[in-house]
Specification:
This protein has about 120 residues and is mostly helical. Helix content is about 50%, strand content about 10%. Strands 1-2-3 form a 3-stranded antiparallel sheet, with no helix packed on it. Strand 1 and strand 2 (about 35-40) form a beta hairpin. The N and C termini lie far apart (about 35 Å).
């Protein structure tokens, strides 16, 4: 199902973002013996439904991209910006997102390009 490298990549991303994954009520990463790692997003507040299609993960990069997008959206909400998409952020908003993501990305330098790709240039 996974090569050793794929498995190690995904597990590394899970480890780096462990507390964020555990604390975020709206998504999760789960293991399926049939499909492998699955990213579940759009978990309903009552936890009775998932309103977005599950994403079968095939690389650490796939998982990292999903998590940093969610983190960016959370950061925007924390600073009072009422949109989920970081694509059109102001320079101050970009700076704040990059600062918040830095401790994670310092541990995952192979994925730092994903932070830049969050924003429309």
């Amino acid at each position: 199902m996974y090569t050793k490298e794929q498995n190690e990549e995904i597990e590394k991303v899970c480890q780096v973002f462990d507390s964020y994954i555990r604390e975020n009520p709206y998504f999760d990463v789960v293991w399926s013996d049939k499909l492998g790692y699955i990213y579940l997003s759009g978990i309903a507040p009552d936890r009775e439904d998932v309103c977005m299609a599950p994403l079968i993960l095939r690389s650490g990069e796939d998982l990292c991209e999903e998590i940093i997008y969610n983190m960016a959206a959370d950061i925007l909400k924390q600073i009072g910006v009422h949109r989920d998409d970081p694509e059109d952020c102001s320079s101050d908003e970009r700076k704040k997102i990059k600062e918040e993501l830095k401790p994670y990305m310092d541990q995952l330098p192979e994925y730092t390009h994903l932070v830049t790709e969050l924003f429309r240039e």
